[in-house]
Design brief:
The protein is an alpha+beta fold. The chain contains 10 helices and 10 strands. A 5-stranded antiparallel sheet has the order 7-6-10-9-8, sandwiched between helices. Strands 3-4-5 form a 3-stranded parallel sheet, with helices on both faces. Strands 1-2 form a two-stranded antiparallel ribbon. The longest helix has 21 residues, at about 165-185. Bound molecules: guanosine-5'-triphosphate (GTP). GO terms for molecular function: GTP binding; GTPase activity.
Length: about 325
C-alpha cells in the first residue's frame, strides 16, 4: 500500500515480472486492487495485493473494503515517496489509518514474529552511492511487538534524495513515524528500509520481506551451513529462481575476515544476474549457469532445485560444480 505514484507497481513489475526500471515510467495508475498469485519455492503461494493509491481507492480500502484488504494479512508493505512534500503530513495520516485498520481486522492475531533476516541490515558506508537501508523498530531493536502482522515501511525513491542526507532522512523519518504510530495506539513492530528501483536497495528490502514469509528458514540455513563446511566453501547464497531474491546465505567467517567483502554483495548479485538473465532471454539464449574465477576465489552460480539457484564461492574451484551436483538430491 501507499499513496498514488509512490512506486508500488514499479517494484512489483521489476521484482516479480522482471521488467526494467526504465520501463516503469510507462505504468498507469492501479485501479482498485491488483492481486497476483506468485508460485514460490514450489509449494508456497504468495498472494500479493497491489492496492491502488489514489485517494478514492485509499478511502475505499479503509472503509467499504477494509475487511477484504486488511483481514488475515501476513505482512503489510507500505511505500512512502521520499520526495513527497506531504511525507509527514497527509501521507503519514493515511499510513496511520492503515495501521488502525490492520489492528482492527487482526485483533487476536498470533502470527510469529520475523526471524532474523539472512541478509545483514546494517547501514552502508557514508560514501555509498545508493540509498541507506536500515531497520530497527520492531525487529528486536526497540519497537513494541504484539505478534500481529509485520509492517515493512519503505521510504522509496531514495535515489532522488542527495546521498549525504539519505541516512539522516531515513533515521528522522523512522523516528517520527514510529512516534506517531505509538501515539495513535499501534503496538506492533515497524521495520524501515530505504529503497530505490535504480539500485540494489530494492532487492535488499524485498529479500528481507520474502525470507520473512518463508516458513522453514532456520532448517534451510542449517542445511546450507552443513553444505558450507562439507564443501569447504567460503560462502553460499541461495536465490529464488524467478525473482533472484536472496532466500538465505551462510559465510565462513574466517574467510570473510581475511578480505573486505562488500556488505551489499548479495543484492548486487541479484540485480546484476537479473539484468543478465533478461539480456540472455532477449537473444533467446536462456541463462543456465555462471562461473567466475579470480586469482583467489572461484564462484559458481547454478540451479540447485527447480525453484532455486545456488551461488558457491570457494578458494578451490575444482570441486564446486561437482559439489553442487551432489547436493541437489539433498535439497530437492
Ligand atoms: P498507483 O498505481 O497510482 O497507486 O501508483 P504506484 O504507487 O503503483 O506508482 P508507480 O509504480 O506506477 O510509479 C509511479 C512513478 O514513479 C513511475 O513513473 C515510476 O517510474 C516512478 N518510480 C518508481 N520507483 C521509483 C524510484 O525508486 N525512483 C524514482 N526516481 N522513480 C521511481
Amino acid at each position: 500500500m501507499g499513496k498514488s505514484g509512490s512506486g508500488k507497481t514499479s517494484m512489483r513489475a521489476i521484482i516479480f515480472k522482471s521488467q526494467l526500471a526504465a520501463d516503469t515510467r510507462r505504468l498507469g495508475a492501479t485501479i482498485d486492487v491488483e492481486s497476483s498469485q506468485i508460485k514460490f519455492l514450489g509449494g508456497l503461494r504468495l498472494d500479493l495485493w497491489d492496492c491502488g493509491g489514489q485517494d478514492s481507492f485509499m478511502d475505499s480500502h479503509l472503509t467499504a473494503q477494509s475487511s477484504t484488504v486488511f483481514r488475515a494479512v501476513h505482512s503489510l508493505i507500505y511505500i512512502f515517496d521520499a520526495e513527497s512534500t506531504e511525507l509527514l503530513t497527509s501521507d503519514t495520516v493515511y499510513f496511520l489509518k492503515c495501521l488502525r485498520a490492520l489492528q482492527d481486522q487482526n485483533p487476536t492475531s498470533s502470527a510469529p514474529q520475523p526471524p532474523p533476516s539472512p541478509a545483514s541490515a546494517s547501514a552502508p558506508s557514508p560514501t555509498s552511492t545508493s540509498a541507506a537501508v536500515t531497520s530497527s523498530a520492531g525487529n528486536g531493536n526497540g519497537g513494541a511487538d504484539d505478534g500481529g502482522p509485520t509492517v515493512f515501511v519503505l521510504l522509496h525513491k531514495m535515489d532522488l534524495v542527495p546521498v549525504d542526507v539519505q541516512q539522516s532522512k531515513l533515521a528522522e523519518f523512522e523516528a517520527e513515524v514510529t512516534r506517531k504510530a505509538r501515539e495513535s495506539g499501534y503496538k506492533g513492530g515497524l521495520r524501515f528500509y530505504g529503497t530505490s528501483i535504480w539500485n540494489e536497495t530494492l532487492y535488499k528490502a524485498w529479500s528481507i520481506v520474502i525470507s520473512h514469509l518463508m516458513p522453514s528458514l532456520s532448517s534451510l540455513r542449517s542445511h546450507l551451513t552443513s553444505f558450507l563446511s562439507l564443501s569447504s566453501a567460503s560462502e553460499i547464497v541461495l536465490f529464488e529462481r524467478t525473482t533472484f531474491l536472496v532466500i538465505s546465505s551462510v559465510t565462513n567467517e574466517d574467510d570473510a575476515k581475511d578480505t573486505e567483502w562488500d556488505e551489499r554483495r548479495f543484492e548486487r548479485i541479484s540485480t546484476m544476474v537479473k539484468a543478465f538473465k533478461l539480456g540472455c532471454s532477449k537473444i533467446r539464449s536462456p541463462f543456465s549457469s555462471l562461473t567466475i574465477t579470480t586469482p583467489h576465489y572461484a564462484a559458481v552460480l547454478d540451479a540447485l532445485t527447480p525453484e532455486t539457484y545456488i551461488l558457491v564461492v570457494a578458494r578451490e574451484p575444482a570441486s564446486i560444480e561437482l559439489n553442487i551436483r551432489l547436493a541437489r538430491p539433498h535439497f530437492a
